Automatic annotation (TrEMBL):
Residues 175-309 form the Mur ligase C-terminal domain. Residues 6-109 form the Mur ligase central domain. This is UDP-N-acetylmuramoyl-L-alanyl-D-glutamate--2,6-diaminopimelate ligase. Pfam families: Mur_ligase_C, Mur_ligase_M. It comes from the Bacteria. InterPro entries: Mur-like_cat_sf, Mur_ligase_C, Mur_ligase_C_dom_sf, Mur_ligase_cen. GO terms for molecular function: acid-amino acid ligase activity; ATP binding.
């Protein structure tokens, strides 16, 4: 069984999804490990051992897995031989754990450089040309497609032309630029880092341009508690710059006061001559914030629900309760915009 590892700040889930599904469509038994399929992005060594054993018994030939910085630093992937290692990108994240960006980089690049096997860096995959059809929106997803293509080409399983044809029928990735509704557009995405949020909103701006729309962008977002506090004002500033209306709400507050997290975000949302016409709204209740955004949206607008993506829970203190942005968006659409 060949193991393929995908690391990076953003794009791991989408790249893993693409590589695994293309392999399956090409007729190879393949499975994936990551944020959507497992409790942790990179499971514990004991869970990984169990998964590897199960997949081996099934006859799986390729196991594609997300490799997180926590997973590397905590030796969860130690002893695994990766036939291919690839990095999507590296930007600010997890500084609550790694303390400095340099330390975070060292963990990621250290893993990529270690051992034998094929190594694919951003400077490698960026050379790939997208001259084929695929279903994913935004430049950031084009980068994910390029990374996946580079990984797949390195395996030498199919001629490149045949390989590229398989991209046309790929399925959407849950909670990754997932379009819940059109007229107005309602888009759910997992973007929870400054780079992720900026890339998401740029993709929405591109979609608006492609649709020749003059609709507004309404962004609902928050920041996780007990995580890197330094990114909160940055995300606030980025959201305000690229949205017409920002609804600041709760993500997973965990043990922090939701109001304090929101204050940290608002600290970066200082209006200037370029943003004075934009609206900032605060609604700590995420369900209410989603409902408010849907209610405010006109048919040509774009409602962006950022931060939770595929997640089906919200964490308050030590309590985890059911919550799904996609479900809440659909309920809000039924209540506020009946057909």
């Amino acid at each position: 069984m060949k193991v393929i590892g995908i690391t990076g700040t953003n794009g791991k889930t989408t790249t893993t999804h693409i590589v695994c599904e293309v392999l399956q469509k090409a007729g190879f038994p393949a499975a994936k490990i990551g944020t959507i399929t497992n409790r942790l992005t990179t499971p514990s060594p004991w869970e990984l051992a169990e998964i590897f054993a199960q997949e081996s018994r099934k006859g799986t030939e390729y196991l594609v897995m997300e490799v997180s910085s926590h997973g590397i630093h905590q030796d969860r992937v130690r002893g695994i031989f990766f036939h291919v290692k690839a990095m999507t990108n590296i930007t600010r994240d997890h500084l609550d754990y790694h303390k400095t960006f340099r330390a975070y980089q060292k963990v990621k690049y250290g893993w990529l450089r270690r051992g034998a096997g094929i190594k694919i860096y951003p400077g490698d995959w960026c050379q790939e040309k997208i001259d084929f059809v695929h279903p994913y929106h935004g430049k950031f997803n084009e980068d994910n497609v390029r990374t996946a293509l580079a990984v797949l080409k390195s395996l030498n399983i199919l001629p490149e032309k045949k390989l590229k044809k398989l991209f046309a029928t790929l399925s959407p990735v849950p909670g990754r630029f997932e379009v819940i509704h059109k007229n107005p557009y309602v888009i759910v995405d997992y973007a929870h880092t400054p780079d992720g949020l900026e890339n998401l909103l740029r993709a929405v701006l591109d979609l608006r341009r492609d649709q020749k729309s003059v609709g507004r962008i309404l962004t609902v977002f928050g920041c996780g508690g007990d995580r890197d506090k330094g990114k909160r004002p940055t995300m606030g500033r980025l959201a305000l710059r690229q949205s017409d209306i920002c609804l600041v709400t709760s993500d997973n507050p965990r043990t922090e006061n939701p109001g304090q997290i929101i204050e940290n975000i608002l600290a970066g949302m200082k209006k200037n001559i370029l943003t004075r016409h934009k609206q900032i709204m605060v609604e700590p209740d995420r369900r209410a914030a989603i409902r408010q955004a849907v209610r405010l949206a006109r048919a040509a607008d774009f409602v962006v629900l950022a931060g939770k993506g595929h997640e089906t829970y919200q964490v308050f203190g030590s309590r985890r309760q059911h919550f799904d942005d996609r479900e809440e968006a659909r309920k809000a659409l039924q209540q506020c915009r009946p057909k």
